[in-house]
Amino acid sequence: MSLFEQKVSELHERLHKKEISVTDLVNESYKRIGEVEGKVKAFLTLDEENARTQAKILDDQLVNGGNEGALFGMPIGVKDNIVTKNLRTTCASKILENFDPIYDATVVQKLQKAETVTIGKLNMDEFAMGSSNENSAYQATRNPWNTDYVPGGSSGGSAASVASGEVLFSLGSDTGGSIRQPAAYCGVVGLKPTYGRVSRYGLVAFASSLDQIGPVTRTVEDNAYLLEAISGVDPMDSTSANLDVPNFVNSLTGDVRGLKIAVPKEYLGEGVGEEARNSVLEALKVLEGLGAEWEEVSLPHSKYALAAYYLLSSSEASANLSRFDGVRFGHRTDNAETLIEMYKQTRAEGFGDEVKRRIMLGTFSLSSGYYDAYYKKAQKVRTLIKRDFEDVFEKYDLIVGPTTPTPAFKIGEKMDDPLTMYANDILTIPVNLAGVPGISVPCGFGANGLPLGLQMIGKHFDESTIYRAAHAFEQATDFHKQFPKL
Amino acid sequence: MSRISMEQVKHVAHLARLAITEEEAKQFQHQLDQMISFAEQLNELDTDQVNPTSHVLDMKNVMREDVAKPGLPVEEVVKNAPDSKEGYIRVPSIIE
């Protein structure tokens, strides 16, 4: 049995009893990577030498220790849009092929304080734009359950590395579903925190009003531990919320009696596959059996979320990605005489198709004469979507539905049509627009043998209720005890 | 017939500082038209009385003390620049 089939709390206890060492945990990671990485292709950069040195330091500390934190010595993977000092960070883009960050993201500093060990940097869709990892400039990560299928995206490497046992857990980022969708496709637990819960300092920005960093883990309990470690206000991110960080693990009581669950009819209707719908209805039975109550509700503006999201996120991206101009960092073209040619040619050579497409759409919708009709209109629709959630949360504690309309699709299946690809995200995008937290937990398998995810959405800054319900559901089912055979 | 002209596509590419070929311009013309048609479903909604949301949390200006702190070392800052000399970043001539 792999060490990573155990939970953080179990491994923590075994470290303290000296049954295992941090070096054992790090060895387990690189051994597994050696065995399966050729098939899974989750990593862009490995940091093996540093990880082994760090493991030795921590093992020495443990000899006289006793006060280690919950995550002490745990091997973690980090999505490659989170900057790591002196460890190459590419955003899976050619434009940052040799980028060597000069500082650590706040979440990385927090991991260091928690004394985790970074194993390497994880593949993603270029600049987090995509739902399949096929938009990486380097490699297409595979779904560990069937390597002909996509792992989802954009945090595909984060989900695939955890599902295949290469790391114990990982960090991803979620702008429109980029943690929850791959977590669903790979059969692991992924949470997008409330906007502002986790500092974005050092997260290479895609859409600043939507982006959040969050944990990808095998169990809900591990997820709660990891979120607690990375949360909190940060002077370097003025949009981080000045609130105390709850003890999320304490909320895992197993008790959901009287919990009021809302099930939006739009999340079980048109565009949602039979398998996803049935798995949610089964999950609701489980929750009902545990004493929760559920009713059907409506989020009437759901169908407009996708269009609003693509206008807003692309607009923000077109502004954020203007920093990649070949001047201070990243690729610079050899084929330009003037400064403006240098900008244009550098960006043409450095960015992939999907990134260019979104920069074009964003620039268009922010341009003079179109701003009101597209960008501002989308911002107003965002208000309506946010109100939908506020209305439901006046009466209910939690919203439940599928994470994705179907299980994972085959590699290459949706690459030709951007709009079909975008439709994967219809159930996750409204959550980012409203800024509320959402989790995906495993809730079944499709006929193709690939996992399905249950999405639970909570009130602003109420990750605790999400964790309580997700944990109770997980403990009542055995989906999290199944592992892909690679 | 696309509602977006080739001239518009080229203008947007210029604003975005993106060199595009004639072939790419045609492709963007088609894809932008598709995406904009899709986005126009938002016009089904009456939003005259709705305020835009640019940020979901109820936050005003976030202030901090103005305290001088050391910045990043120059050699670190220019480390990733494609072309630098003596602590400066070099670019093609900006004045004709």
Automatic annotation (TrEMBL), chain B:
Main EC class the enzyme belongs to: ligase
UniProt catalytic activity: L-glutamyl-tRNA(Gln) + L-glutamine + ATP + H2O = L-glutaminyl-tRNA(Gln) + L-glutamate + ADP + phosphate + H(+); L-aspartyl-tRNA(Asn) + L-glutamine + ATP + H2O = L-asparaginyl-tRNA(Asn) + L-glutamate + ADP + phosphate + 2 H(+)
Gene3D superfamilies: Glu-tRNAGln amidotransferase C subunit, N-terminal domain
EC number: 6.3.5.-
Record GO biological process: glutaminyl-tRNAGln biosynthesis via transamidation; regulation of translational fidelity; translation
InterPro entries: Asp/Glu-ADT_sf_sub_c, GatC
Subunit structure: Heterotrimer of A, B and C subunits.
HAMAP family: GatC (MF_00122)
Name the record gives this protein: Aspartyl/glutamyl-tRNA(Asn/Gln) amidotransferase subunit C
